[in-house]
Amino acid sequence: MSASLERQMLGGPRTVSMKTPHVTNKQASQLLHNKFVVVLGDSIQRGVYKDLVMLLQRDNYLAASQLKTKGEEQFEKDELLEGGTKGHMSNGTKYKEVRQYMSDHHQVRFYFVTRVYSEYVQRILEEFEKGPKPDLVIMNSCVWDVSRYGRQWEPDYMENLTRFFRKLRTILPEEALIIWNLTMPLGKTIIGGFLVPEVAEFGPSLRFDIIEANYCSATLASVYGLDVLDLHFQFRFSLQHRMKDGVHWNAVAHRRITCLLLAHVANAWGVELPPSQPPTGLNQSFSEQDPTKETQQQPRKAQNSVYRCRPRAWGYNNYPVPPNPCMTSLTSNFYGGQDFSRDYIPPQTGPYYDQGFFIGYPTQDSNDDNYVMRSKYRRAQYRPY
Q1: Helix/strand/coil (H, E, C) string of the chain?
Q2: Residue 359's pLDDT is what?
Q3: Residues 239-291: pLDDT tens digits?
Q4: Best CA proximity match to 117, nearest among 173, 82, 153, 159
Q5: Which of 34, 157, 237, 275 is deepest in the core (most CB within 10 A)?
Q6: CA R_g for the chain
Q7: 208: Cα separation from own chain's centroid
Q8: Which is it for strands 177-181 and 35-41: parallel, antiparallel or unpaired?
């Protein structure tokens, strides 16, 4: 089969639209005016915190050294409150780091956590209960949970997620915005300080474990009314922005994460972000054209986006598949009401279609925000400025 014919059968070349606007320093400062923001998670979330602190002061990107450094006493006028260089520096599960940036109208705090629910996380939640309560919580905990606490991680991870989400919903007010970030794609080979010798054997399969863990956490977050930002989906074709260690990402990717988060925050708070362009002179741009050999060697099915431009030709698969009359797929809740768990596309005529079992695929022209799973509960709309 020729390459051109194969591309025609698969729906043409892969295209990904970039709809998220760039967020400037002025827009971020106004959006988070008089707001208390908390970021919880691992080193990736520490990068999220650092990029947000940088953007609240100026439009520059983070330096590579700033992303790699951990536990420093000061970063861009912030303060190390606990742990880091004030405590014991290590790559173990007991490592702690609490940072905070404060200005006249902004407060951003970061907690380094290695497990989604533990005695340390309980103490953090007790601080929230005593006050002040955060207006915006951005969090993720996955890679450490599935790699450092035993190979059979599923039962404990699900139980800890349930405890954490339930407790967080009980403590924070209804108007608080809680965003659960899904873990970004990992590389085939993971190097560096994260993968200690005790768990080095888990490295090759870890990138598949986080996909399952993302599905579990997104499902539970939906149950408890949290918003979910699917960073794994957003960066699946942007692996050239991932660092050589297979885990961390460069400054351009982190600015993209910040723009995605702030765009969703503005949407949730009823604030319209005016269109803007990145400042000139930075010589940094975000690209989703991945030239790396790693993506080119993936199976063809993994290269196809779930957002198909057109249905696959009917002659491709013409055998009947029994429908599921109780179609309550959790995946359908995750991707904007569409069921992408089935690779089979039934015909649009016949008993299956007449009974309403056919679920169509959205097109790339859809205006729906399928990258973010909305909260099930109505949240009071209020303007931060």
Answers
A1: CCHHHHHHHCCCCCCCCCCCCCCCHHHHHHHCCCEEEEEEECHHHHHHHHHHHHHHHCCCCCCHHHHHCCCCCCCCCCEEEEEHHHCCCCCCCCCCEEEEEECCCEEEEEEECCCCCCHHHHHHHHHHHHCCCCCEEEECCCHHHHHCCCCCCHHHHHHHHHHHHHHHHHHCCCCCEEEEECCCCCCCCCCCCCCCHHHHHHHHHHHHHHHHHHHHHHHHHHHCCCEEECHHHHCCCCHHHECCCCCCECHHHHHHHHHHHHHHHHHHCCCCCCCCCCCCCCCCCCCCCCCCHHHHCCCHHHHCCCCCCCCCCHHHCCCCCCCCCCCCCHHHHHCCCCCCCCCCCCCCCCHHHHCCCCCCCCCCCCCCCCCEECCCCCCCCCCCC
A2: 30
A3: 999 999 889 999 999 999 999 999 999 999 999 888 877 766 554 555 554 43
A4: 159
A5: 157
A6: 22
A7: 16
A8: unpaired
d(CA 208, CA 357) in angstroms, rounded, equals 30
Biggest CA pair distance of the chain = 69
CB proximity list for 381: less than 8 A, separation 6 or greater? 269, 270
Among candidate residues 301, 210, 247, the one with its CA nearest the CA of residue 42: 247
Residue position matching structure tokens 């359908």:
332
Tens digit of pLDDT for each residue in 65-88? 999 999 999 999 999 999 999 999
The model's pTM: 0.72
**What are the pLDDT digits (tens) for 198-250?**
666 766 788 899 999 999 999 999 999 999 999 999 999 999 999 998 899 99
Contacts 24+ apart (CB under 8 A), 265-268: 265/31, 265/32, 265/136, 265/177, 265/179, 266/31, 267/369, 268/177, 268/227, 268/379
Sole residue written with tokens 């790559």: 91
Beta-carbon count within 10 A of 299 CB: 7
pLDDT of residue 373: 47
Contact 102/125 with Cβ under 8 angstroms?
A: no
CA gap 271, 49 in Å, rounded: 22
* The amino acid at 336: G
- CA distance linking residue 15 with residue 289, whole number of Å: 9
